Amino acid sequence: MLLRVLFSTLFLAGGFGFGHAQNVIIEADEPITQMMDRYVELNKSRNFVQGWRVQILATPDRQRLETVKQSFQYRYPNIPIDWEHAKPYYKLRAGAFESKLEAMRLKYILQQEYSGIYLVKDDRITPSELIGNL
Questions:
Q1: Which of 35, 43, 70, 125 could form a disulfide with 51 if both were Cys (CB 3.0 to 4.6 A apart)?
Q2: What are phi and psi of 55, to 5 degrees?
Q3: 3-state secondary structure of 33
Q4: How far apart are CA 83 and CA 60, in angstroms?
Q5: Sign of torsion, CA 130 107 118 113?
Q6: What is the pLDDT along the chain (134 residues), one digit of tens a residue?
Q7: Beta strands in the chain (DSSP E)
Q8: Is 69 helix (H, G, I), strand (E, B) or coil?
């Protein structure tokens, strides 16, 4: 009985145009169109996006940074790694993700080998650096 009601509902819905493609045309005033065009141009010119990285190390010792970086690159050649210097610390960061959830996956994998790692927000990620799903 329930199957008959469901089938009848779907059949009637198809008869009212729900199953057909519809075109929607939006007409906007000229100032709105100009504002949207400007918004699109500004976003095209952005060189960086916000995202997340996994910080592996923060140390004042540059030699330690280089050692850990080389070891990481050997073990994970497909994961980008970079460092920055914010006096007095050298910070080693891996990956580049749009969402925190994606970065958490990498953190989970790496925390077996690197203690004290954590996620950091980064607003200087180039779109080409972003990593897809691991």
A1: 125
A2: -85, 120
A3: helix
A4: 12
A5: negative
A6: 555 555 555 555 555 555 556 788 878 888 888 888 888 787 676 788 889 999 999 999 999 999 999 999 999 999 999 999 999 999 999 999 999 999 999 999 999 999 999 999 998 888 878 876 44
A7: 49-59, 81-86, 89-97, 118-125
A8: helix
